[in-house]
């Protein structure tokens, strides 16, 4: 990416794109239950009201990435699976792909009635940042899609959080994609604020790559408040039963992040190298980890040929595997901790990492980020409109690339650099289709349902389950 961007003079203020209260249309919440109070961030923890909130959940994408289906738009399957979630005793499900044109009221209501929150990835196979060409794929067509997804879910009380990306950085030679992940996070936070929605947490789900995991965590927590993530998560398969807090290396990660000032949790866990007994559950919700960690999500609910599934789905029937009973037992025997878990209420932002052999962010350092595409500013005032759903033409080659940087003032981006529009882009997602379709939408690096498609940021990268589970 070095030298690929031309720094242009600042030409517009993002502050001018933020809607005034009179311009904001705030809809009533669609959630029908008081059992899922809106969750907020305080210090390095989540809180539901005055109670510390721990994520105790599963990753949920029946059919896997190949079908690109929306599991919470299918009322029948949702009803079937919510019953299983209640048996497991989870309070959160992570969904990797949704259709932002579909109606989700019934399923979100069923989840809310069961006391279950949604952690949602906003990217889809066709609408995501391309790791090979991040500048070009960060465009207004892409942002229109993810903003439309925010519109679809912001008014449910049990929308817990949004993931701006999943395992975008998976090695040392593509860390230069990081500024675009951070820019998307910034844009999502500002869209939520400009549209008058409640402050739904926005953050990133990282690959557990030991050489740059900490750098990425620091990077997503540095800069001004509008640039910083609201949380940081990573996918961790380093505890393989039989193991322990020390043997797995979890103690070292707790020490490493002991002064981290954002909520931290595992967006995927559950090694299958040996029999899964989920002994790590006791550690994850124990007093050694709760000052730093806020729980985690087990990969994954439905078996897709990778061996990670807790249940086998055949037609309308669900068969619980031994892993299901093991997790159910582990959660039952390890209730959510009481009290505040020793959280840090007054942490400070991180220092942005310096360039190194394992961190290649050079074009954008410190507080400078890619400028939001000028056309996307209109969404801040006018809303995103109807999304492209799962059948749109895609965004990776569809819009104008950002050609400059945005430099923040005190707490907000104050300038947007000029862009050069390219043909074919539109707010309806009608630009040229991506060069080839990605076969996985935010799916796990570990998952066995991965196709050999292109490498796409925010979708997920190629990995064979033959390589084992640990990525440390």
Automatic annotation (TrEMBL):
Pfam families found in the cross-reference section: Glyco_hydro_72 (PF03198)
Biased composition (Polar residues): 345-356, 395-420
Keyword terms, alphabetized: Glycoprotein, GPI-anchor, Lipoprotein, Membrane, Signal, Transferase
Broad EC category: transferase
GO BP: any one term: fungal-type cell wall organization
Membrane topology summary: Lipid-anchor; GPI-anchor
EC number: 2.4.1.-
Compartments (UniProt record): Cell membrane
Signal sequence bounds: 1-19
Region (Disordered): 331-358, 387-438
UniProt entry tagged with the keyword Membrane: yes
Family: Belongs to the glycosyl hydrolase 72 family.
Residue spans of biased composition, Low complexity class: 429-438
PANTHER family reported for this sequence: 1,3-BETA-GLUCANOSYLTRANSFERASE GAS1, 1,3-BETA-GLUCANOSYLTRANSFERASE GAS5
GO cellular component: plasma membrane; side of membrane
Function description: Splits internally a 1,3-beta-glucan molecule and transfers the newly generated reducing end (the donor) to the non-reducing end of another 1,3-beta-glucan molecule (the acceptor) forming a 1,3-beta linkage, resulting in the elongation of 1,3-beta-glucan chains in the cell wall.
Single GO term (MF): 1,3-beta-glucanosyltransferase activity
Protein name: 1,3-beta-glucanosyltransferase
